[in-house]
What does this fold into?
Amino acid sequence: MPSLRDIRKRIGSVKNTQKITRAMKMVAASKLRRAQHNLINATHYMDAYKKILGELSKSVDFTSSPLGQKRETKNTLLILMTGDKGLCGSFNTNLIAMCERMIKEYQNQGHRITLTTIGKKGQAFAKKLTVELKDSFSIDQIFKENITPSIATSLITDFLENKFDMVSIVYGHFNSAISNTAKAMNVLPLTIENNEIQNDREPLFEPTKKEVLKSFLEHLVHHTFYTTLVHTFVSEISSRMIAMDSATNNAKDLIGKLTLDFNRKRQASITKEMLEIIGGKEALTN
It folds into this structure.
């Protein structure tokens, strides 16, 4: 049985842990507000961009672009986006589990899989695999060095040079501050539905229709990659905030239980001492 001193030490230890988790929750909440602002801007930009594409599709055949042409899939590039750190519940575990399922599924279909990891947790996972690793980046590195454009450009180049027949991303989709989902998205080849062609109102293209189409679709790949990255980053922060809130509440419950045990044990000790005093007095009296 633990002594009163041991229980008191454990209460102090849990209180210190509670202070740390509460502080980490506050830091995550502060980061989440800033990250959500970036995600909202990225989402609004993508919505506006898709409206332009919708209008453009009335005059342009997107299937004529090399980025939209489907071919027999032999080589697949899988991009796994995770967080750089832990203490965010099952966020990283869910993404890694989805990536593992997709690798097995594609391999069963005869695909040769190449993996690119974004996030340190994904890097650690990739070391356990036998698939070829193309590149590895940390989330912090990507945002600090602003290398999202170069990564997206390399995806386009590799696809056009037939190094890969399909490019897919596994990422964390941010739903709300208390909810996110592990999702997979095929980035290349592009899938864009053409609206009914209206040649009677065809706009004027400058410099040429072909160059405008190429620029628009390449930019779509760039922004799709960036948006999934921001979704993952925001999801990681929100998951950490939820995990730290849960840890803080669990610590509070544990402190209450330990305090109750401490008071019971102390009361039992006091009662025992009183009984010993009374018994000693009676022995002297007799």
Summary: The longest strand covers residues 166-176. The chain has a mean pLDDT of 85.
